[in-house]
Design brief:
Layout (H helix, E strand, L loop, with lengths): L1 E3 L6 E4 L15 E2 L1 H21 L9 E6 L4 E5 L9 E2 L7 H8 L8 H6 L8 H11 L1 H8 L3 E5 H9 L9 E3 H4 L5 E2 L4 E2 L1 H7 L8 E3 L24 E6 H8 L8 E5 L3 E8 L10 E6 L8 E8 L3 H11 L7 H9 L6 E3 L17 E3 L7 H27 L6 E4 L6 H11 L3 E4 L4 H12 L18 E4 L5 H18 L21 H18 L4
Helix pairs in contact: 4-5, 9-14, 10-12, 11-12, 12-13
Subcellular location: Cytoplasm; Mitochondrion outer membrane
Family: Belongs to the FGGY kinase family.
EC number: 2.7.1.30
Length: about 525
């Protein structure tokens, strides 16, 4: 929770907590919706305590903007306010067989899903996650039958809960979040009846769609004694996280772009009021609509599934580091991956490949390779993936970007930023306050009609201090490293040939002949005897 001065864009106070991710089965990623809600309460409370210590009156808070992970799916009971299942996270892969069966029903010469939504049919988006919940969770099925169920992405769940919940909470979303469900027509800006029928989603459970900058409702925080003064005085609005970062980076002109380094990596380029459809694996999405009567702006987006998540994986799964910040120190010790390449395709490959069969690999290992080289390779992987989506963006737009504006927590890592400049071979420009996602949400909230404390007119926008990273290697070396990375990416594909069933049967992923297992067993047996001195 971050509080900004609307006149200067200065960050006055903030607090953050890490939210747990659950991995109940291979390829499944979930979060607890109640934990997410309680984390919001905690962050608000702690931030307001800090504001009090700075002698800042919290009654001066005029509006709250919500910025959220966009595709993550929640269904809850509108009578009790209880979630009916964990939130199914955007990275989740359990719906791959649903995607495959639905793909067969789309005519080859009329991909109406992509033409209406700008999105490929993928496990990434909300519609197939919601379809899985409707097919597999009896509590969800029963609530829909009894007209008790509400669906939403995280913004909808938070806004409904914070504006009254079961006692009259506002069930809404904005155009940017709606555009990531695969149920929303990005041309008419409405839920699409044909799409809902295709995915067999009942339209009665969908939230009302609003602009990204208008008053949705009043916040009710009387359950937190410390901030009871906020009760009925704070207005809500929301923006999907990547759209919020685009606003926070002030990319309001056609052709302006930014790249956000978070759990994943997301490059968005503002295409103005026109929908541009990619020929190189990018998504067409709603950038923002900053007011009920304001025009909608669109963007091309390159989405990378795993960026900061690879650092978390090194910390939590391998124990190579104890804190995320340690990755920079390890990488700095060696200054090279020493020929080691890491493709973190934990959830398949997103843009520009859209290859769900890929899985993570580390290759180029020698006996010399140590944890420092793997740490360096992990940072390089984030940069190489960005290069891939930037190349696709340049081909679609026709005019190569002369520099890259960046933001997100990972941009505090100077090794990463220098690597990014070297691999792109263009300057990388980072604002002094990297959390521009939160800033963008605050700007949109403050600019809403009826709030009016933040001007988005170009002449009123505050100048932002920037740090610039210039390429420090020659172009030939940059290309050699990139071409080797591309070889590694090709080797990561095709690992998964048969998906596990969606009902959660942990059946084997790769369908392999019996002879493979016999040979594997023999090799393991011989290896064991060799090590024990029997050979």
């Amino acid at each position: 929770f971050q509080v900004f001065n609307s006149k200067t864009a200065e960050l006055l106070s903030h607090h953050q907590v890490e939210i747990k991710q659950e991995f109940p089965r291979e390829g499944w990623v979930e979060q607890d919706p109640k934990e997410i809600l309680h984390s919001v309460y905690e962050c608000i409370e702690k931030t307001c305590e800090k504001l009090g210590q700075l002698n800042i009156d919290i009654s001066n808070i005029k509006a709250i903007g919500v910025s959220n992970q966009r595709e993550t799916t929640v269904v809850w009971d509108k009578l009790t306010g209880e979630p009916l299942y964990n939130a199914v996270v955007w990275l989740d892969l359990r719906t791959q067989s649903t995607v495959e069966s639905l793909s067969k029903r789309i005519p080859g010469n009329n991909n109406f899903v992509k033409s209406k939504t700008g999105l490929p049919l993928s496990t990434y988006f909300s519609a197939v996650k919601l379809r899985w919940l409707l097919d597999n969770v009896r509590k969800v099925q029963k609530a829909v039958e009894e007209d008790r169920a509400l669906f939403g992405t995280i913004d909808s769940w938070l806004i409904w809960s914070l504006t009254g919940g079961a006692s009259g909470g506002v069930h809404c979303t904005d155009v940017t979040n709606a555009s990531r469900t695969m149920l929303f027509n990005i041309h008419s800006l409405e839920w699409d009846k044909e799409l809902c029928e295709f995915f067999e989603i009942p339209m009665k459970i969908l939230p009302n769609v609003r602009s990204s900058s208008e008053i949705y409702g009043l916040m009710e925080m009387n359950n937190i004694v410390l901030v009871s003064v906020l009760y009925c005085h704070v207005y809500f609005q929301c923006l999907g996280d990547q759209s919020a970062a685009l606003v926070g980076q002030m990319c309001f002109q056609d052709g302006q772009a930014k790249n956000t380094y978070g759990t994943g990596c997301f490059l968005l380029c503002n295409t103005g009021r026109k929908c541009v459809f990619s020929e190189h694996g990018l998504l067409t999405t709603v950038a923002y609509k900053l007011g009920r009567d304001k025009p909608v702006y669109y963007a091309l987006e390159g989405s990378v599934a795993i960026a900061g998540a690879v650092i978390r994986w090194l910390r939590d799964n391998l124990g190579i580091i104890k804190t995320s910040e340690e990755i920079e120190k390890l990488a700095k010790e060696v200054g090279t991956s020493y020929g080691c390449y890491f493709v973190p395709a934990f959830s398949g490959l997103y843009a520009p490949y859209w290859e769900p069969s890929a899985r993570g690999i580390i290759c180029g290992l020698t006996q010399f390779t140590n944890k420092c080289h793997i740490a360096f390779a992990a940072l390089e992987a984030v940069c190489f993936q960005t290069r891939e989506i930037l190349d696709a963006m340049n081909r679609d737009c026709g005019i190569p970007l002369s520099h890259l504006q960046v933001d997100g927590g990972m941009t505090n890592n100077k090794i990463l930023m220098q690597l990014q400049a070297d691999i792109l071979y263009i300057p990388v420009v980072k604002p002094s306050m990297p959390e521009t996602t939160a800033l963008g949400a605050a700007m949109a909230a403050g600019a809403a009609e009826g709030v009016g404390v933040w001007s988005l007119e170009p002449e009123d926008l505050s100048a932002v201090t920037m740090e610039r990273f210039e390429p420090q290697i020659n172009a030939e070396e940059s290309e050699i490293r990139y071409s080797t990375w591309k070889k590694a990416v090709m080797k990561s594909m095709g690992w998964v040939t048969t998906q596990s069933s969606e009902s959660g049967d942990p059946s084997i992923f790769c369908s392999l002949p019996l002879g493979f297992f016999i040979v594997s067993s023999m090799v393991m047996l011989i290896g064991a005897r060799y090590l024990s001195g029997q050979f």
